[in-house]
Amino acid sequence: MSQNKSLSLSRRNFLKTSLLAGGGMLIGFNFLSACKPEAILPIDISNLNFNDFNAFIKISDEGYITIFSPNPEIGQGVKTSMPMIIAEELDVAWEKVSVAQGFYDPKNYQRQVAGGSQSIRFGWDALRQTGATTKQMLVNAAAIQWGVEPNTCFASQGNITNANGDTLGYGEVVKVAANLEVPENINLKDPKDFKIIGHDIINVDIQKIITGDPLFGIDYSSEGMVYASVLRPPAFGNKLTSFDDQITKSINGVTEVIKFGDKIAVLGTNTWAVMKGKKALVAHWENETKLESTDDHNFELFKILNGNKFETNREDGNVETAFKDADKIIERTYESPFLPHNCMEPMNFYANVTDKKVHLVGPIQTPAWTSGKIAKILNRKPEEIHLEMTRMGGGFGRRLYGDFAEEAAQISNIAKKPIQVIFSREDDMAAGTYRPAIKYRIKAAIKEGKLTAYHLKEAAINGNMYGLIANFFPAGCVPNYRVSTANYKSNITTGAWRAPFTNFLAFAEQSFFSEIATELDKDHPQLIIDLLQNVKGTADERIQYSPERMEETINLVIKKSNWGKTPEGVYQGFSAYYSHNTHVAEVADVELKNGMPVVKKVTVAVDCGIVVNPLGAKNQVEGGVIDGIGHAMYGDLSFKKGTPQSVNFDKYRLIRMEETPEVKTYFVENNLSPTGLGEPGLPPAGGAVANAIYKATGERLLKQPFINQLEISKSKLLG
Amino acid sequence: MPNYTLNINGKKITVNADEDTPLLWVLRDELSLKGTKFGCGIAQCGACTVHINDSAVRSCSLPVSSISGESITTIEGLSETGTHPVQLAWKEIDVPQCGYCQAGQIMTASAFLKEKPKPTKDEIREAMHGNICRCASYNRIEKAVKLAAKNS
Question: What ipTM describes this predicted complex?
Answer without folding.
Answer: 0.98
